## 1
Amino acid sequence: MQPIRLIRSAVTVGGWTLLSRGAGFARDMMMAAYLGAGPVADAFNVAFSLPNMFRRFFAEGAFNMAFVPIFAKKLESGDDAQGFARDAFNGLAAVLIVFSVLGTLAMPWLVWAMASGFAGSERFDLAVMFGQISFSYILFISLVALLSGALNAYGRFTEAGFVPVLMNLMFIAAMGLAVWFGWDMGLTLAWTVPVTGIAQLAFTWVAAHRMGLRFTPGLPRLSPDLKRLALIAAPAVLTGGVVQVNLLVGRQVASYTEGAVSWLVYADRLYQLPLGVVAIAIGTVLLPDLSRRLRAGDAAGGRESFNRGTELALLLTLPAAVALMVIALPLTHVLYERGAFTAADTQATALVLAIYGAGLPAFVLHKVLQPLFYAREDSRSPFRFALWAMVVNVVFAVGMMPLIGFSAAALATTVAGWTMVWQLWRGSRAMGDEARFDDRLRRRLPRILAACGVMALVLWGGSVLMAELLTAPGWRYPALAGLIAAGMVSYGGAVLAFRAYRLSDLRAAMRRQR
């Protein structure tokens, strides 16, 4: 995959992710309006976070990081990639069926471990009930992640990209039906979770079948390749577990303030929009590309792909991070404050959003730097780095909670994120020139930062001038759109003026796509 094809594939993934995040944001706007940040919202957010937490533990953040490089190399060499994928699918399914049953039975303990501050309140019983209904989602979505990884290795990003869009559309439809028929909103959301998992698995299964991949269910066969996969995946699974411990710590800290779990979730949705569009897109495309290049011995091509992916990621992420910090309050007020979502909820969510914004570049750089290790089948180094980041997260979250309350959870996440980046960067120094920034990236990064500074001034000035419009009914939506447009235009103009990116780069890219 040439660098321009890598960027084009990343744009494809990013486009679908943008659509997914947009639909997900619409879903959360509806949830905020119907549930606010009350007990039902807190309970559902904790219950839904449990299968998603273990999904990242088993599949997206761990198993797939080990599966994709091996599968991609088998495709490159002409080995039996389909047989390997089938064995991996059956092995993962067997583990997850057992885990789903055990997790459902142990739901009261899982809820307590996630949010002990709920104990003795209505939120605890609701979270247990919602969790028992929705926990089987981990089985379906983890198998979807494996199938999506196989499709990505074939360069088929559209099918896998539609999967999260489908989930959010089903949630939106379910809430609409609940309002229409008068159903209980909390129970409706809980039952929608496993239904969406079944729909996502069916869609991905059909997409893989059309590609010629046959995933016949059966008893797992412990082949030599599967043993090798297990050995490589084990440290990655532990790494995913460490990352989820960080999430667990944050939820625990937040659970002692009513509404705080929901504030974190609503802020998370806003910063996940740029994170998903850029980081997931770049990481999804970069890992199989680097794996193929290592197999072919193309060190120069690998370095070019790594640097152009990093350049694109920072070009898009840094302004998003600045915007989230500078206009966190207007964003939260305009997008969320309605119905059951109060002004106090807006203030708390905006604070969390600004803190998350400071960590956004770190979370994106994770996705850029980690493939350097996983493409080399090195899952041990990221595990060691994640352990240290976990220690930092726990110390900050617990130590700062008496001083700044629930926002300590967000601050700890951001500080731990930058700690992880620093370790990944240091660890990659031993990989040689292939993992180093080239002259073009080093020259352009300061210019990108300068352009972000110009945009920050425009956004701050605009938010002051349009303060009344941003809170006026009927005007706040166009006012926010105008403010965002002013920020985008100022950033784009500054990027071109400072030569952080050139029109000739875009024209060359368009010519090479023809």
## 2
Amino acid sequence: MPAETLVREFNHTLLWPVTLRPLRREAGRHATYWDTLKKNPGPWESVEDLLLIEDQSCLAGYQEFVYFLPYVQRFLYGVGDEGRGAQSSLHVFQRRDIKEVRIQVERDGGTLVLAVKRARLYFFYDVDIAIATLEVHGRDIALQDAVEIMDRFGRPYAPAWEDSGRGAHCLYRVEFWGDAKSEDGEPQLLSAADYGDREKYLELVKASRQTTLSLHWEFFLSPMVPGYLPGGTLKYHQIENKRIPIMTYLAFDNPLELTRGDMIRIGSAAKWGPSDTLPYAKGFLANFEADHCYDRYWDPETDDMQTRFMFVGVAFSGVSSHQEAAARLTQFRHQFFQIALIANFHKAALLSLSDRFSRAVERLNVRDFESVKAFKKHVRETLEVFLRFNHRYWFHELSNQVQASDFFQRLSHQMGSDQLYTEVREEAHDINEYLDTDRARKQADNAMRLTVVSSCGMVGTIVTGFLGMNLYSHDALPTIEKLLIFVAVFVPTVALAIYTVIISRRLANFMEALSSEGLTWGEKFATFRQIWYSNRRERARRRREDADRGEGLATSE
């Protein structure tokens, strides 16, 4: 394909999921992330009605609304018997201060100016994640630059550095510009990427063991604060690393002229290369069209079918002719955007739940009572969240439109959401089984202890209560003497009961040995002696193990 081929319409959207840390106590017991942000919104402003966010006439919102099934409508727009007054599962913020993004792909390349069409932040009820979205748009961009932007713009940090000091796989320059005029009449620079500041990334990773974000992405999410920085009420950290999920629409004068290499690079958001080459091995790409392309409206043999959609990992892209750009882009920015938003939300929520289960197990110390107690509390809360997610958010069908259903299934498959859901559900099942088993074990242990105490107390009860007989008659004694006799009997009895509970496990072992016909009387007597001596032996054994462990650590050091 000729090098000067232009992308007539280039619409690129990032959907960036992040995990939110639990709010601190000072935020309030029933505080929510969105209410906390409203108190200190910074550049963000709350969106009261998502249906009218872009068009007060409701035309665009109506087309989105009727595209989805009723339960998806309730999820997106809060539909209910009271209509607009019903609560939505989404809480949306937007910012208007970033007007354009200026990009320089290579050091000796020109500056591309992309208009910012949408900058939003989505919170989800009962799930500790947020999704930040940034949509940029440009016209008449060289295909090479468009593909490089798809590949490099959604990089939250530099994964490595080239010999020149430039961040590998990153754009040479990225700047956010606002419309506030400076003294010389120029727009205001709000923030710029710092991919080349290698020392910053290395020092923060060494100090916090967390991936560090580029400065312009920190600015985009402010006043939210990344987890590796001090301060801030709303703190977040990344769910996935290296690349932010994207969706991109490209319109060409004649998309049928795109080579197979061009298509694969667009669909995969891969590094640019000559059009007559492939980005990966030929055998690896043998089934690319069958596995990743949606060709319902694509036929190279006709001029009427020039629209192709591609789904590769975290990249969702669409290609069409410039003549169809108006209709295709509108649908891509609205209905298809909502499909991608839900698909990315599903994966982010499942990853967050899996991480919560993993952290709970990592912190569990079965020998520490407080650790076990905290583990059970944390796991039960996570199981409740998973149950509500399963019944409130886990959709298999979004729309009765065939294309919408196909898109959602392909996105979920490429993101691995179905497999991830199965894994999280198995984790929840395993942990729930552990809790049930532990609960049953404790109940059996308590029943055993009560049985032993009852058996031991039964002897005294029968002896003193045989035929209602009273060994001593105290009817004629004064009240104070009766009270003293009661205390004198009550206190030792309580102490004996407590002591019996303490050694109940050893008593149970003795009773089991006593009832066994396979043990000799000598072995039974040895078990009887262990009622009092086993505890000493156990403490001595533990002290020896601790001493051996300390010597082993000293030797290894």
## 3
Amino acid sequence: MCEKHINIRQGAALEHGEAHEQEHQLWSRRDFLSATGILGAGGLLLGKMGIRSFQPTPLMAALANGNSDRILVLIRLDGGNDGLNTIIERGNPFYYNLRPTIGIPDNQLWALSPEYGMPQYTQALEPLWQDGMMKVLFNVGYPNPNYSHFRSYDIVASASESDQLVNTGWMGRFLDHEYAAFLQTPPTVPPALQIGVQADLIFKADQANMALAVSSPQEFYQIAATGQLYDTASLGSSPRELELAYVRQTANQAFRYASTIKESYSRGKNEVDYPTDNYLAEQMAIVARLIKGNLGTRIFMVEIGGFDTHATQADRHPILLNRLATAVKAFYDDLGATWKDKVLGMTFSEFGRTIYENGSLGTDHGWGTPMMLFGGGLGNGFTGSYQDLSNPDPYTDPEFSVDFRSVYATVLQDWMGTSPDLVNFVLGQQHDRIAGLVPATTPNTGDNGKCALLGHNPHPTLSSTVEIKYAMLQNGPVRLQILDKNGNILRTLVNEYREKGSYSFPFRPSDWYISPGEYQYRLMGGGQVFQRSLKV
């Protein structure tokens, strides 16, 4: 049956030759610079891993409230994970007909249930499943799939339709909404961190990608200790100077995060042995240490590559899944009882693989693929429908059963506590939530009444003076401004760096040449904007 399979998706298979090679070479240095942008770029190295930090998004707002300190860890399986060899329908004869060589025998599975199993090389996950800390979503995808790695990943990262070109990410749009003052008063604690080689579209907003990159921790901390920033204005436009300008810009942006990350990394400790020779485990050890060091970061992203298994899949795929399983198990063992219920892990990939094995004993680019969720309090179970292998189409794969954007909507609303209206805005349209997928939290009611801008009242001792009260939840730059009722800036009352704490500003309108009338006052701090009305 496999030999009759006709694959017409150009670039999806090895036999497409130049088209396949071109598809893999699309992500050039120029594309990378364009996607990441100079503005706000930077990086940090901890251990041997490059860490990229991104600014908070509205989904973090619920976490800032006292009733929620939940964390999300996104685990990217780069290359297109083969779902049929990850979660196997036990005893399905059609599966073994379609995959006579690379199919996983039933006696080499551990049981998720009487109907489904996973390969024994993922058995590190069995305790999580048995303890109610793991769920599986079958056949996750989107309509009219694209089989280019980069285009399909852009769709998954931007949460767009397959025929839409959207150059911002779903979390980047959160940032744009909630942290409108990021460029003017950036936060000093990075509420989102990506560990990997390059900045990711998921975190890209309209005006900036908040990546942070330097070549080494020594360079980073030297900048933070001395305050010495690199000059970029004197550089020209030659290729070498443009590259040097890029490196210097990213190093400059690293400055504001150095102390908080360094302190947290020093406070946190890994209390289990992570598997060696495992790139993903090394990343997750860093994440666990930062979480336990109370950095305050709420979103993490880690990645493991190599899932583009066109050939000799039986040699490569087991190693990758074993690294995933052992890394996740060590991570939750390390978090322990204190943190495991607060940290949700979620795997995702740009697409799945064909249901047929190919002539190179691998699989080509396909449609749906499973997602896995990890964390305390999840329970265990399945969502969606397994691929129907009984009547295969020789030209395409079975249709997906779960839209990936429904998973995003569920995580944003139920795990993070984001309001339904904001979820719909960020995802571009309404997507049905998946009831019971994750433990639901109380929806966010907003920060403006509880955190930075506390309000105003007549000054207790100074006549004709208003006392404007505000609080800084972290060290950083702050601006306090007076605006007219149309939102035009009239005066800047405060524009300086402040330590975290509570403050008040005595505002006497006559001292600032402000006539009686209706005004607004605006606080910008920690990347956020808070605004209230004021009658003088």
